[in-house]
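[agent] plan:
  1. take the single chain provided in the ticket
  2. run structure prediction with default settings
  3. attach structure tokens to the ticket
  4. add a short note for the reviewer (M.T.)
[agent] executing step 1
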Amino acid sequence: MFEWMVWTTPVAVFFSCIALMLVGMTVWEFKSPTTLRRGWLPMETTRGDRLFIGLLIAAYINLVFIGLAGKFQEWLALEVEPSIWISFVLSMLVLALVMRKG
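[agent] step 2 finished; step 3 output follows
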């Protein structure tokens, strides 16, 4: 069923984190129902809205990094392409920022 996907360790960790976040958000919602809040995003959002927006941003960060990894190697004169873990950490930090301040 999942043979079409290239399941590397970073990909598995990324999707496992998403699954854990969804489970955590569900439990959090049952324990403490969310309310609309206005942060630096241009609209009022709930925790679920911020999670969705943050996950979209995280996905785009990872896609851009994958697309530019070869260019980073050229620009920075690296021997090998930079690790995908860099984009994973960056995307999780941005997700945390959106969840907290968005």
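[agent] step 4 note for reviewer: The CA atoms of residues 50 and 99 lie 5 Å apart.
[agent] ticket updated
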